[in-house]
Amino acid sequence: MDNEPIKKQDEDLSLKLFVVLTRAIQSVKKKVEEDIKEMGLNPTEFAVLELVYNKGDQPIQKIGEKVLIASSSITYVVDKLEKKELLKRRPSPEDRRSTYAVITDKGTQFMDEVFPKHREAINNICGGLNKDEKQTLIEQLKKLGYHAES
């Protein structure tokens, strides 16, 4: 029995999935970036600020892996957020080699104002799916990602 036509159909479907997934990501990312730019930040600055806002003080050396940006960019991003008075650096009391990014009062006030609007914008961007479809897609994309990593 020849499985070549079935294999080709599966390969074609995988290629189509890749193209559709890539286009969807680009569309969603573009809309989210537009929302972030309206706040006066770039996406990387927002990601770092959002991390510290939601998770508390963060060792600067560990921020890159948590927000998926190059560690070489972190110092630059923290510098920019410091100039905007949204973050500050604080030496670690336990380890002199380590420095923490700490949100300032101005940063907290800023995020208290913009983060609910950002959540709403993302909800609107994802509004093409209902709650059950979102949950199913989350599970399927996790499954796809874990498989791709292995």
UniProtKB/TrEMBL annotation:
InterPro entries: HTH_MarR-typ, MarR/SlyA-like, Tscrpt_reg_MarR-type_CS, WH-like_DNA-bd_sf, WH_DNA-bd_sf. Residues 14-146 form the HTH marR-type domain. Keywords: DNA-binding, Transcription, Transcription regulation. This is MarR family transcriptional regulator. The keyword DNA-binding applies. Pfam families: MarR. PROSITE patterns: HTH_MARR_1 (PS01117), HTH_MARR_2 (PS50995). Gene3D superfamilies: Winged helix-like DNA-binding domain superfamily/Winged helix DNA-binding domain. SMART domains: HTH_MARR.
